[in-house]
Write a structure and sequence with these properties.
Barwin-like endoglucanases; 12 strands; four-stranded antiparallel sheet; elongated; mainly beta; single chain; five-stranded antiparallel sheet; 178 residues
Length: 178
């Protein structure tokens, strides 16, 4: 998560808002050679604006932002795993949601049919995927590694036997000890 605010456009309120950043586009630069580039939703643009000037700020396009990283905080909420609709017994893609802390740096999968942890690749934003070329037998465990602390969290039997693409499965844990 980031606290962001804009101050260089006349429509900017100057007040910070909290946004969830799911994909920072490593290596991307803006036309001004800035080191970070965030694609904000229309809602986020509107929240950065002075009252009545949301459309003016949305229409500005690229704006300069001041930002700082803050920990994701979902009190009383556990990690959720949404199976991508394109998943099948050979290919599994999952969106990892409601993770507390400073982001995920690594996701690993353990299937009943595997002899250890299989690295998943960051597919886009919160989605992580693996294509093994062999049938993956559920139930599935998922191990998350937190970005800064390198602490790990295991989602035990998070995707059960009989899982379905497009379904969401909730764990009983989160990094805060839920």
């Amino acid at each position: 998560m980031r606290n962001v605010k804009c101050t260089e456009n006349e429509a900017c309120s100057g007040n910070p808002v909290t946004v969830t950043i799911t994909d920072e586009c490593p290596g991307c630069t803006t036309s001004n050679s800035e080191t970070a580039h965030f694609d904000l939703s229309g809602t986020a643009f509107g929240a950065l604006a002075k009252t009545g000037l949301a459309d003016q700020l949305r229409n500005a396009g690229v704006i300069q932002l001041e930002y700082r990283m803050i920990e994701c905080d979902y009190p009383g909420v556990t990690v959720q795993v949404r199976v991508d609709p394109g998943s099948n017994p050979y290919y599994l893609a999952v969106a990892i949601e409601y993770v507390e802390g400073n982001g995920i740096s690594k996701v690993e999968l353990q299937a009943q049919s595997s002899n250890g942890w299989i690295n998943m690749r960051d597919s886009s934003g919160v989605t992580w995927a693996v294509n093994t070329g062999v049938v993956l037998q559920p139930p599935f465990f998922i191990r998350l590694t937190e970005e800064q602390s390198r602490n790990t969290l295991i989602l035990t039997n998070i995707i059960p036997v009989g899982w379905k693409a497009g379904q969401t499965y909730r764990s009983r844990v989160n990094f805060n000890g839920n």
